[in-house]
Amino acid sequence: MTTAEKRERRKLARERLRRLQERAKQRELADGKPAKTPAGAPATAPVSPRAAIRAADASVAEKQKQRQEAIDALERDVAELGRLTEPSGNTADDILRIRKEVDELKRDFYANLASWQKVQLARHPQRPYADDFIRLLFEDFSEIHGDRGFADDAALIAGMARFHGKPCLVLGNQKGRGTKQRVARNFGQARPEGYRKALRAMHLAAKFRRPIFVFVDTPGAYPGVDGEERGQAEAIAHNIREMARLETPIIVTVTGEGGSGGALAIAVGDRVFMLENSIYSVISPEGCASIMWRDSTKAELAAEALRITAPDLLELKLIDEVIPEPEGGAHNDYEAAAKLLDPVLARALEELAPLSPQQLVDRRYQKFRAMGQFFA
């Protein structure tokens, strides 16, 4: 590269740095200020409350999208600037300062996500699944297959393992990665034989007084004809009843989607936790919108109304604790997500271990009977 080319490149880098500094100072990127109405403009016609809510929800979603795009553009500019400039004195300090400001914008953005954005994060294809948490948190995992009646359902995995050296049972939904795996695992939607396999494994754990760790991440139970023919509703109801009276500690963590009865069938526990960006609901936002407004495109409005995010459910006392995720979501750093989850599981097990079988059953029963009583 000639001297003239180097000078031109440095000039370009300095100009990019100047523009980037100006953009970083404009906090409107994160605040989304509303536009002012021009003087003399005619007053708008009155709208119905429902239309106003829809418009407000669309406005929030659009602002969230604009903020995400602005932050992504800033990150690209910072990375490009660092690549173009030579690390020296003031330039390096400016780049470091701007990078910190971008990181602050990201933290603010992810701390104030709308419900629909959290739904999308919970469904992220790179989100850690049960096998990832098993690999990072447990030792000596030995998988159990089959329900001893029909088949082995790959949508649910179960097996004996060790947690901090103590024997336990691990159970969880597995959506699979890549098209072939997802089809083989039915996108994490269990059939009746999956729930019967899970219950068989849980009865085995209870027999030897081994604690049960459950990782929930499913859009719901499989709704196909073959599932209904083999008793899908009966299998879910049977699991709920039997889990309510298992005489061993049950610790449940919703790691992604907790959808309908398909999630509840393995989520009756002494402790129920949720990762920060997971969701837990009786129905999907799209399904709710289709029923309430006959329009699945109103899923964003339904997501807000359903109150399906972890903070909402903690406020309603339907879960016990919200577990933070790494910056940007658990899909960005599996190991960091597991490190944040590990002490919470250990603490819960330590609290439940001294309780007698009858105390566990009685407390679990009272816990679920108390849910929703404030609506009565």
Q: Mind explaining what this structure looks like?
A:
This protein has 376 residues and is α/β, with parallel strands linked by helices. It has 2 domains: 8-27 and 52-112, no CATH class; 121-375, 2-enoyl-CoA Hydratase, Chain A, domain 1, CATH 3.90.226.10. It is 54% helix and 13% strand. It has 16 helices and 8 strands. It has helices at residues 3-25, 28-31, 49-84, 89-111, 115-122, 130-137, 178-184, 192-207, 225-229, 232-244, 260-264, 285-292, 299-306, 310-315, 334-352, 357-369; strands spanning 139-144, 156-163, 166-173, 212-218, 250-259, 271-275, 279-281, 321-323. Strands 1, 2, 3, 4, 5, 6, 7 and 8 form an 8-stranded mixed beta sheet that branches. Helix 11 (260-264) links the parallel strand 5 (250-259) and strand 6 (271-275). The chain is elongated.
